[in-house]
Amino acid sequence: MKKFASAAAITTLIFAFGAGQAMADGDGNVSHASGTYGQTTGSAGDLLDCGADTMSTAKQTFTRLGDICDDGAGTPCDGMFTSLSEECFSPADDVGVAGGLHYVTARGKFRVCYDSAASGDCTDPLAGIVIGKGRTLTQTRGIFLGPNVSAIAQATSVVKVKHRKKFWFDGKKRKLDKGESVVHSTVETLSTGCGSACGVVSTSVGVDD
């Protein structure tokens, strides 16, 4: 298996990405979110310190959160539910090539926030409250084209909610599932020149509670 050894090389490839998504009460619920992400090396975030490794940071807003809210039907989310995900990966150890494909594996943490004023993005200083947090494991895949990749890549994350807090929304006391979700994401790659505002759209499905 061929591996890239330089951090500089990975900046033109794809991000490792873990969507900070979480399911609402009940099995089989689906959540949708979209937002942006960026990448840094050698700096600490709100949730992690990756040391000399590379950190990817994703910030998303839910347009559907299980059976809690849905902008397309029923009670709208209206930007009140957001997530922050930070993951670390080593360009020397967590990046590989298989034929014409390359991949990045990353691990990290996430949190989900509720802000009735829809004024925050789940980063410090926090607006609203943290209603869930946990860990992620992500593999991102793209087409290997030398120093760059195609404009779109795919990411799959396993998201485990480990801590959650009850909250009032739409006249009901709610909480997120404590189980696992699988998150499928389509991500814009750095080769498009998006910098710290690369786009991502995600769908998560609960698989275990």
Describe the structure in your own words:
This protein is mainly beta and 209 residues long. The protein has one domain. 2% of the residues lie in helices and 51% in strands. It is built from 1 helix and 12 strands, in the order H-E-E-E-E-E-E-E-E-E-E-E-E. Strands 1-2-4-6-7-8-11-12 form an 8-stranded antiparallel barrel. Strand 9 and strand 10 form a beta hairpin. The longest helix has 4 residues. The N terminus is likely disordered.
Task: Return the structural class.
Answer: mainly beta
Characterize the largest beta sheet: strand count, sense, and whether it forms a barrel.
8 strands, antiparallel, barrel
Low-confidence region ranges:
1-14, 23-28
Q: Would you count the extended β strands for me?
A: 12
Shape: globular
Cα end-to-end separation: 36 Å
- Give the overall pLDDT as a whole number: 83
For the largest beta sheet, what order do the strands appear in spatially? Answer: 1-2-4-6-7-8-11-12
Q: How big a fraction of the residues is strand?
A: over 45%
Radius of gyration: 17 Å
Helix content: under 10%
Number of domains: 1
Order of helices and strands: HEEEEEEEEEEEE
Number of helices: 1
